Structure prediction request, 468 residues.
Amino acid sequence: MDQQEEPSCTTAIVKRHEKVVYIFNLSEDVWPFIKAMSDPHERQFEIDWNANLAERDLLSIAEENEAIFISPHPIKDSFLSYYQQVFGTKHIQILVPKTHTGEICEDIINDNDLVEELIKAANSVKKLTLISYSTSPQFLHLVSKLQKKGITVYTPESPEVPSAWTVNFYGSKSGIRQLAQKSGAIEPDFKIADGLICSSIYDAAMIAAHKYIKEGGVVIKTNKGHSGAGVLLLRPGDLPNEYDACEKAIHTMLKKDKYWEEFPIVIEDLLNVNPAVGGGFPDVEFKIQKSGKIELLYYCAMRVDRSGIYKGQEMHESVLPERLAARIVDTGFFIGEQYAAAGYRGYFDVDFVAAKNGEIYVTESNARRTGGTHVYKTAMNLIGKEFMTDSYTLSNNDYSLPKGKKPSLEEVIQVLTPVLFDKKTKEGVVLASSNLLEQGKFAYIIFGKNEKRSLEIEAEMEKLLLKL
Prediction:
């Protein structure tokens, strides 16, 4: 419900603030990729997995005292209770569309009751502040529909419609590669692994096989995958060493999913990663304000498994050598300047690989909120603005529970009580989801006074989870 302020004795004017509405639309960011997944079970798993990450982004709006959070899946009362306990009393209204297709903004449009809730939330001033995980075409369609109902919609984290192309272009593997090739002469630190872009699996298989035979490895990427899906890291021994057999093996891999045939394919060198430098995968995140000002949020070391799937991150000023941190921040600012000039607004990050040859390469950029935005927001809320020095932060969005275990949130809270976040010490585990537990996964954030302490808390957490 809207909170109405009582008029004071000196004025009869009633002030109303614009309601903040957050939409978790992760699947929409990669919807063409999801639609092109050939296996219907894998496609549905991806949609459900993305939807179950919604609770995680409740943490990213914890600074809002009053907001509407639109989630693709219902959020359990037990998680809301835990959330309010950790972050203090928050007036968060949860709305869920009647149907869940993966395109949540379209689901909202088709749910008359939910649309009426948004109209009511706009109250007499007929204004809404609308933010989302990604500025998808579906999100812009929803904005247009609300505007046609007479509501003024403010989108502080989105580009204007004429610049909305920047989201998919700069958030794609081919887009960031084109920007790197265009910018190399004026920003020499903006390096990307040697490679090229092609448009057919026939050409891609031949080119990739040639590179694999010649160099002993190759990376093949679809234009815009998600969390490691749509990326093939082919190392020595993974493929035959004879060209025809190698080409045939790659062609067979690329035939398995339609997205390889529907979108540009990037083929590039397999870099020899140096795990001693930021775990091998540094990252930096920014936000471009509506004014065009570029704001550095944090840098981190990503936690990435052998197959290239992002799990989480480590955040602290010490995770990268000072000179390297300065370099990736400078490169990120340069990229942000190009985005801002093209009209992009909102969050973005830049992913890097630290190679054993001493070079740092850009691998991709995500023109949206990221898998680390909620970690940054939580650190700001629970630790403070100096979180990069005051606490060592670990996160994992994809921790596998003991085999076959799908515990309730209450069971997890009970078993982890000894290591849960303590507001006095500002150390411990923060739970980031309950719905993921139904898929045998656990999402969390850990705060400790230093790296040693955070790793100790994580190790103790893992031992306690074995008791489930």
About this structure: Residues 1-16 have pLDDT under 50 and may be disordered. The first helix runs from residue 26 to 29.
